[in-house]
């Protein structure tokens, strides 16, 4: 990988992190899309996306906690089984001919769910319950954890739309829960993928700086300049194009 590619990917990661962070996400699906479009080795993509995700998710979780929007009671039902199932998923390494279409489908699903979560805000008028239903939350956390671990995504991009559509939490709480879920599951999946950690991209330290800057910018000013529904539809369009590209690779 030459210098121009490293810098180009770093810039793409910064923009991706800023866009995702502005809507409470860490960006793993976006990083996978960027790396897929660049034709990087799938064995490198998964742990690299998880490492980038950990940093941006940590930034988002801290800021939501500092703003008083994070509730442990709301979060832990999703994390109890999400963590171990993400470790299991992280230990599953798919071959390239399976990995590309699987991640492509995941990206398409993420796009659809981003659109649905935007539309659900105008449909769902009923006030969310004081505490999300425990057993459904456990199962939701486990299922998303397994898929996120297998594919190298934090899972928050699926969790936030799902719990908004089910009207389990308010919009701001959904963003806080998904940020913390991304952090927890990305760490778990990275631990589960320890066998591939030697395949982490060499420019990772520079890319971490890029997504760190992007994450800070996104959470600080991104959502102030564009309406949330515009950002979500923009991200959905990017994910759809990238997902289709990976499926057709």
Write the layout of secondary structure elements.
Blueprint: H1 3-21, H2 28-37, H3 42-66, H4 72-90, H5 96-123, H6 134-151, H7 156-165, H8 171-192, H9 204-225, H10 228-247
Helix pairs in contact: 1-2, 1-9, 2-3, 2-5, 2-10, 3-8, 3-9, 4-6, 4-8, 5-7, 5-10, 6-8, 7-8
How would you characterize this protein structure?
- With 249 residues, this protein is mainly α.
- It is built from ten helices and no strands.
- α1 (3-21) runs antiparallel to α2 (28-37), α3 crosses α9 (204-225) and α6 (134-151) crosses α8.
Question: Gist?
Answer:
This protein is mostly helical. 78% of the residues lie in helices and 0% in strands. The protein has helices at residues 3-21, 28-37, 42-66, 72-90, 96-123, 134-151, 156-165, 171-192, 204-225, 228-247.
């Amino acid at each position: 990988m030459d210098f121009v590619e490293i810098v180009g990917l770093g810039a793409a990661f910064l923009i991706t992190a800023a866009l995702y962070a502005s809507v409470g996400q860490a960006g793993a699906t976006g990083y996978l899309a960027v790396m897929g479009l660049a034709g990087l080795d799938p064995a490198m993509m998964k742990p690299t996306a998880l490492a980038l995700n950990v940093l941006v998710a940590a930034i988002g979780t801290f800021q939501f906690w500092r703003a008083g929007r994070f509730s442990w009671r709301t979060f832990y039902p999703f994390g109890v089984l999400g963590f171990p199932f993400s470790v299991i998923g992280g230990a599953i390494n798919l071959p390239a001919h399976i990995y590309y279409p699987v991640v492509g489908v995941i990206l398409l699903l993420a796009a659809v769910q981003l659109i649905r979560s935007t539309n659900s805000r105008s449909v769902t008028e009923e006030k969310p319950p004081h505490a999300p239903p425990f057993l459904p939350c456990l199962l939701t956390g486990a299922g998303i954890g397994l898929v996120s671990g297998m594919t190298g995504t934090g899972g928050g991009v699926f969790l936030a739309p799902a719990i908004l559509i089910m009207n389990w939490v308010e919009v701001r709480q959904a963003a806080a829960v998904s940020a913390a879920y991304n952090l927890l599951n990305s760490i778990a999946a990275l631990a589960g993928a320890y066998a591939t950690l030697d395949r982490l991209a060499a420019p990772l330290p520079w890319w971490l700086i890029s997504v760190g800057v992007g994450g800070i910018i996104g959470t600080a000013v991104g959502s102030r300049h564009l309406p949330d529904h515009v950002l979500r539809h923009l991200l959905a369009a990017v994910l759809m194009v990238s997902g289709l590209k990976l499926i057709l690779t």
